[in-house]
Amino acid sequence: MRDKILKRQDPHVNKILKDASVSILGCGGLGSNIAMSLARCGVGTIYLYDFDKVEYSNLNRQNYDQDDLGKSKVLQTKKKIHETIPYSKIYANEVYVSLDNLDEISEKTDIFIEAFDKKEMKSLVFEYFLGKKDKKLIIGSGLSGLGDLEDIKIKKIDNVTMIGDFTSSPESGLYLPYVGVIASLEALYAVKIIKGEYDGK
Question: Which end of the chain has fewer CB atoms at under 10 Å, N or C?
C-alpha cells in the first residue's frame, strides 16, 4: 500500500523517509498539519506531543472536525493519519512539554519541529535545543494575519532553522491559508534535512 500511495515520489527518497523519525512539539494549527504532511510524504516514525483538547476555535485552521471536539489533539491526529495513510508509526504523547521532560523527549529523535502558539513555549524549546549539535530544530515565528509570501524568511541560527515573517502577532488573527504556508515550509525543511540536502546550519 505504501508504494502505491507514494508512487509519484522518488523511490530512493521514499526509502530514506521510511527510515526517518521526527518529533512534533504541539498539535495545533502548525503541528496537526505538519504531522499529516510528513506522514503523507512517507516519514516512517512521528512522535507527537501536546496536552490540549480540540475546541471550536481550532476548527478554522487545525486538522480536526466536529467529531474531534473535546478529544485529545495528539490522539485524534494519530487517528486521522492512520485512517488516511496507515504506513506511518505514530506515537501520541498527551503531555505538557516542559524543562522537566525535554531531556526525555530529546532522546527520541534527532529532528524536532516546534509548533506551539505561545511565545513562552517557543522560547523554551528554542533555548533548550540551541547549540545541541546532534539535534536539528525547526521553529515557526510570525504566522498570523494574511501576510504575503515575500514577507516569509528562513533564518538559521546554529542548529535551529526559523521560518516565518518574525513580525506578525496573534492579534492579527489566525487564518489557515497563512498558517498553512508556514506549516508546509516547516514540513518541507524537515524532509530536506532528512534527505541530506539541507544541514540546518
Answer: N
Would the CA dihedral through 193, 188, 85, 62 be positive or negative? positive
Pair 137, 160: CB distance under 8 Å: yes
Q: Are 116 and 28 within 8 A, CB to CB?
A: yes
Closest CA to 104 of 165, 11, 23, 34: 23
* Cβ 27 vs Cβ 50: under 8 Å: yes
Quick one: CA torsion of 71, 129, 118, 82, rounded to 10 degrees? -20
**Residue ranges of domains in the chain, CATH in brackets:** 1-195 (3.40.50.720)
**Chain segment 36-50, per-residue pLDDT in tens:** 999 999 999 999 999
- Determine the pLDDT at residue 44: 97
